[in-house]
Design brief:
Largest sheet: 4 strands, mixed
Shape: flat
Number of domains: 3
Structural class: alpha+beta
Oligomer: single chain
Number of helices: 20
Strand content: 5-15%
């Protein structure tokens, strides 16, 4: 024999709901309404006394009584109130949609259009075609039943490469930049830039500037002018337009709002559009009728309704627990990072891991992880993912623990202030960070530099 612990339906329901951000929660509630016939949207206004979820039993139910309600409210949101407006991040139109619209203006046969449309669908998020032409030919044949050859695919790719944004449809970075540079007016610096990209791209990416000047027979002034043109080009043309959420505009609705008023931090959860729920009268009637009946069919119907009633009760209670869990967790984060939330200064962001908040709230680390995942908070200095506030710590020279985020900020400042003609090596960065009071090893500098997307010293060199 062995002892095992099983989760109750309510616990399972709560765990699933905790993970959901606001928008997905709304969709989940709509789904529950569709799947559970016992629940109806309550469009009538009722008294405040009837706002909390309550159980439904046969002993409570009478024909003349008010219908027992299962409710979903956030911050006492009333159905007669105007739906609040959200501050959201919105992305531009779909990348694929944008290209297909341009494709529609081209004078192509139906066959050519199908080939070109397939190529558009094969581009990655950055706007590149990362696949070989022969693999496109094979896919068109086997997946779309369209017979073609590499030459036609190449011809259609060249059509797409004429679209906006410039550089789209390139097969690598070099081709992407060349597509863009060739659209510029052919001045001397543009011609030099095109030659660098075409003939000396490897030397350019490796910052071997002296080799380029020698082989091209140009001076430092001409090289700088050509490089300034290259550096203004866009290496990710598809990044201007987002394709998230299957070609729909993506919005991020903050799960929490934090205001700073009269020296006090005030945390709330935004009101969102969730319907009030009630038990459908006809199902309550089935229970009432079945209570005094000996007929098997009515008993079976009552069993079905009771099962659905239990499901509704668990669902509403899980939503209540979700709200309390999220509020408790976020309040603990705000309390832990109090100084940071006052002004948003990263230097005030203390080292904090999931365990710290688990200890403050009494919740499991796994619960804190679920709360933090995919959730956002709107503060008076911006909108942030909850994950942003978590970071490990290291000791400074005074023995105080500082956030790794603070160390990264200091490292970034060192790199930003360096002489780009003689970029700082990792060893030199260790020395400078030490002079600022941060005790870090060379391997730590290299690790944080990689995480910040800062290349090695040789690759940061500029003229």
């Amino acid at each position: 024999m062995k002892q095992t612990q099983k989760l109750s339906p309510l616990q399972i329901q709560t765990i699933k709901l905790i993970e959901l951000p606001v928008q997905e929660l709304e969709q989940r509630i709509k789904k529950e309404l569709e799947e559970n016939p016992v629940l109806d949207e309550d469009v009538q206004n009722e008294t405040d006394e009837d706002q909390a979820p309550r159980e439904v039993s046969l002993s409570e139910y009478k024909e003349d009584d008010a219908i027992p309600s299962y409710r979903l409210r956030s911050d006492n949101y009333n159905s007669k109130d105007e739906r609040p407006q959200y501050n959201t991040f919105s992305v531009k139109e779909s990348f694929t949609q944008n290209l297909m619209e341009q494709l529609g203006y081209r004078n192509l046969s139906e066959h050519q259009f199908q080939v070109a449309a397939f190529i558009v669908g094969s581009l990655d998020d950055d706007g590149y075609l990362r696949r070989s032409l022969d693999s496109i030919v094979d896919d068109l044949s086997f997946r779309a039943n369209i017979e073609t050859d590499e030459q036609e695919v190449l011809d259609m790719l060249k059509v797409i490469q004429e679209f906006d944004p410039p550089g789209v449809g390139a097969r690598d970075l070099r081709e992407c930049l060349l597509l863009q540079i060739r659209l510029l007016k052919h001045t001397e610096e543009v011609q030099n830039a095109e030659r660098i990209l075409k003939d000396y791209f490897t030397e350019f990416t490796n910052k071997h500037f002296q080799k380029i000047m020698t082989r091209m027979g140009i001076g430092e002034k001409e090289l700088k002018a050509a490089m300034s043109k290259i550096l203004k080009l866009n290496p990710s043309p598809g990044g201007q337009i987002d394709d998230s959420y299957n070609d729909q505009a993506q919005q991020i609705v903050p799960d929490f709002l934090l205001d700073y008023q009269d020296g006090e931090l005030i945390l709330t959860m935004p009101r969102f559009s969730i319907p009030e729920l009630r038990v459908n009268r006809k199902y309550a009637d089935i229970l009432m009728e079945a209570a005094n009946s000996s007929e098997r069919e009515k008993k079976d119907a009552a069993t079905f309704v009771k099962k659905k009633l239990d499901s509704a009760k668990w669902f509403v209670e899980a939503l209540k627990q979700r709200h309390n869990t999220l509020m408790s967790t976020m309040q603990a984060i705000v309390d832990y990072q109090h100084d940071y939330f006052i002004d948003g200064d990263e230097s005030h962001l203390k080292p904090m891991v999931l365990k710290d908040i688990a200890e403050k709230t009494g919740f499991d680390i796994s619960t804190i992880s679920r709360v933090v995942n995919s959730k956002y908070i709107e503060t008076h200095f911006g909108i942030y993912s909850l994950k942003y506030f978590f970071s490990e710590g290291l000791e400074n020279q005074d023995g105080e623990e500082v956030s790794t985020r603070e160390l990264k900020k200091a490292l970034q400042e060192c790199v930003d202030a360096e002489d780009k003609r003689k970029p700082l090596t990792d060893d030199e960065l260790v020395t400078i960070m030490k002079s600022k009071g941060y005790k870090v090893a060379r391997r730590t500098i290299a690790k944080y530099r990689d995480q910040l997307g800062i290349p090695k010293a040789r690759l940061r060199k500029e003229l």
